[in-house]
Amino acid sequence: MLKKLLGALLVVVIVLIGVAYMLPRDVHVQRTIVIDRPAAAVFPMVNSLRRFNDWSPWKALDPNVKITFSGPDSGVGAAMSWAGNSKVGRGNQIITDSVPDKRVNTDIDFGDMGGGKAAWVLAADGSATEVVWSLDVDLGNSPMGRYMGLFMDKAVGPDYERGLKQLKALAEAPTAEATSGVETTQPASAPTTSANAATS
How many structural domains is the chain composed of? Predict the structure, then answer.
């Protein structure tokens, strides 16, 4: 009897693994919003990881999260790393490509959880700007990762929606031209640390 049960269990495991490799290896998450401001006003808010912290959907999940900024204030090479609670986790992000008023691309490393590529794409929508925030993840050959990929849109999508709504509110506010709330007395090229920020 035990031998039959073990045999049945082995068959189930083999089937689950086989099904996993039939699932997509690449996952794409994307959300869109229209902001009633020109691209020139919105772009600085996505081209700076310091300013991203002003509207990040994760910043309220861990008031004590530790964030370190390095590189330039904005554009290619601007980077941030974070370490927080279980909701925020730890990792780093760096801007790899930046086209004024058009696009910002970043690489994200979540440590043991893997990595991905995120992007903000801006497009004129009359006198407003359509902003598309996306994330692309290569799940590799891990069967568990493939199954987790089935839930990634539901897990990340709502955060992206919340973040875009906060970006819209910030960009359309009368004080939208104000600089980021992140303060530092160190040179832009030196790492700076904040205790009230979150990830992308």
Answer: 1
